[in-house]
From TrEMBL:
Any matching Pfam family: AMP-binding
EC id: 6.2.1.3
Protein's cellular compartments: Membrane
CDD domains, sorted: 23DHB-AMP_lg (cd05920)
Functional pathway: Lipid metabolism; fatty acid beta-oxidation
Name this polypeptide is given: Long-chain-fatty-acid--CoA ligase
Membrane topology: Peripheral membrane protein
Principal location listed in the UniProt entry: membrane
Stretches assigned to the AMP-dependent synthetase/ligase domain: 45-413
Length: 558
């Protein structure tokens, strides 16, 4: 078998494991002009010709014009082409908000190498899972984080991951590489290899990660045509154009700052992105003033921090015209303060890495902006709100949100069992969110039916944490549930039943235990409570609802 045959077989296999839209839907989305032949790699090339010397990316003192960004991408492509990686190979990418992240992303897109986008907060447990589940051949990560406390050495993590993943052949480090390869020295001035396989709009582009409800995160396959549509369709609702300066404050690998419209939207609009190393008001207010930032995106707890800090800042924030807030529900009292304090328009964003994204529109009435989470990007987004038996609820009544449309996936990668539960037979994604729809089509998020904890926008699968807790020698059984929190909305709390004769671990002990298992810090329980027995539902399952209610009762009576 020649290398090319191997590549073709592997590519076919990856495609086969990535559920696709039925042909009739594809044709419809094309006929309606939503999907095009464009790819992300080609888009940057077109924009580099059109916006040549205009600023595309600012990171600290580094300023890249469209032409310079595109040239960097080509230099990295030339190196990647000579690295032995082939079209369709998976590359796990874990980089902070830096120029190298954007250059790497576009280089992989351009060559048809498939990034799996990890967050800087992920640790050995998660990264190992992403490498294994995607059968990745390469990992691109950083030496350590330039800012953010405490300092973390990602090379140590890479070592652990490499030892656990035999298929992982190559590791590239942005910064001092130690025994690995330097990402910087991968770029080269050699010409691009011309007979590289073509990357088409119908090809897979990358994998996003699901927040996770059933244990480990699932891989979300995205193709150029559907993802590009979600980006381009977001530009007008968010007021993005070539005058936009967008601050990448949230981790750029997340769907929200990536594509709603995010930094990919910046490139599609001909605007400029400013990379924030971390999202604190101190760092970001300075960047807003210095670079004349017009747009940014935050999760609600960060928006609240900004609202508290803004009245005391000496920085000039007057360039900011739109603040997008999403990832979890924004409290309407906080929402009311955005206009008066920051002097900009609030845009609520309710989206998901699986697809559907809703925006309040910039010219909507105040009530819509304050009290709803927006309406879908596209007229072809189908929204269905159903009861527990799958029957449509009466208009305006809360129910389970199901959706299908031009940028909502038809299934997770290589996961038929989960797909059978998370997607209906007619291709709707069961979001697990409980929403009500207004007569004008806006969604109001009322809660969640899926077993997930939303820690200020960061999603935690209780099952994943429970499985690790169960490995503790003193634990007989456990249930991880959300406890209410004014700032983050929810925090994880672990209820633990000790083994006979043992004492249940206290919070610091259990947290240390989970940390040594390589779990990301944001998933660690904030509280551990010992309990003798779990409340049960009628069918004998643990009643998480009763546990949540118990936490709520103590919270509100405290
Ligand atoms: C975004 O994406 P994910 O994949 O991290 O999380 C999706 C889930 C939703 O199913 C919902 O449960 C929750 O996050 N969510 C919200 C929300 N936005 C997301 N819940 C209430 N209010 C909101 N505004 O979080 C995401 C992806 C693209 C754009 C924005 C957010």
């Amino acid at each position: 078998m020649s290398t090319n045959d191997y590549t073709a077989a592997d590519l076919d296999d990856i495609r086969a494991k990535s559920p696709d839209y039925p042909e009739a839907f594809k044709q419809h989305y094309r006929d309606q002009g939503l999907w095009s032949d464009q790819t992300f790699g080609a888009l940057l090339k077109t924009q580099a010709e059109r916006f040549a010397a205009d600023p595309a990316l600012i990171e600290g003192e580094t300023r890249l014009s469209y032409r310079a960004l595109d040239a960097r991408v080509d230099r990295l492509c030339a190196g990647l082409q000579r690295s032995g990686l082939k079209k369709g190979d998976r590359v796990v990418v874990q980089l902070g908000n830096r120029a190298s992240f954007v250059v790497t992303t576009f280089a992989l897109f351009r060559l048809g190498l498939l990034p799996v986008f990890a967050l800087p907060a992920h640790r050995a447990k998660e990264i190992t899972h992403f490498c294994t589940a995607s059968n990745a051949r390469a990992l691109i990560t950083m030496a350590d984080r330039v800012s953010g406390q405490p300092r973390f050495d990602f090379r140590t993590l890479a070592r652990e991951v490499k030892a656990a993943c035999p298929a992982l052949e190559q590791v590239y480090i942005d910064g001092a590489p130690e025994e690995f390869n330097a990402l910087e020295s991968l770029s080269c001035d050699a010409p691009l290899i011309e007979d590289w396989p073509v990357v088409g709009a119908d090809d897979l582009a990358f994998f996003q990660l699901s927040g996770g409800t059933t244990g480990l995160s699932k891989l979300i396959p995205r193709r150029h045509q559907d993802y590009l549509y979600s980006v381009i369709g977001s530009l007008a609702p968010c007021g993005f154009d070539e005058r936009t300066t967008y601050l990448v404050a949230l981790p750029g690998a997340h769907n929200f700052p990536m594509s709603s419209p995010g930094f990919l939207g910046v490139i599609a609009a001909g605007g400029c992105m400013v990379m924030a190393p971390e999202p604190s008001p101190t760092t970001c207010f300075e960047l807003i003033e210095r670079e004349g930032v017009t747009h940014t995106a935050l999760v609600p707890p960060l928006a609240m921090l900004w609202l508290d800090a803004a009245p005391h800042t000496q920085r000039d924030l007057s360039s900011l015209s739109v603040l997008q807030v999403g990832g979890s529900k924004m409290n309407s009292e906080a929402a009311k303060r955005v206009g008066p304090i920051l002097g900009c328009t609030l845009q609520q964003v309710f989206g998901m890495a699986e697809g559907l994204v809703n925006y309040t529109r910039l010219d909507d009435d105040e009530d819509v902006i304050l009290y709803t989470q927006g309406r879908p990007i596209s007229a072809l987004d189908e929204v269905r709100i159903v009861d527990d038996h799958g029957q449509p609820v009466a208009p305006g009544t809360p129910g389970n949100l199901q959706t299908r449309g031009p940028y909502t996936i038809r299934g997770y990668f290589d996961n038929p069992d989960v797909n059978a539960k998370s997607f209906t037979e007619d291709g709707f994604y069961c979001t697990g969110d409980v929403v009500a729809q207004t007569p004008a089509g806006y969604l109001i998020v009322g809660g969640r039916e899926k077993d997930q904890i939303n820690r200020g926008g960061e999603k935690i699968s209780p099952e994943e944490v429970e499985n690790l807790i169960l490995a503790h020698p003193d634990v007989f059984d456990t249930a991880v549930v959300a406890m209410p929190d004014d700032f983050l909305g929810e925090r994880p709390c672990a209820f633990v039943i000790p083994r006979k004769g043992a004492t249940a671990p206290d919070t610091p002990t259990l947290v240390d235990f989970l940390k040594t298992r390589g779990l990301a810090t944001f998933k660690l329980p904030d509280q551990v409570r010992t309990i003798d027995a779990f409340p049960h539902t009628g069918v004998g399952k643990i009643s998480k609802k009763a546990l949540r209610q118990a936490l709520k009762d103590t919270y509100f009576s405290a």
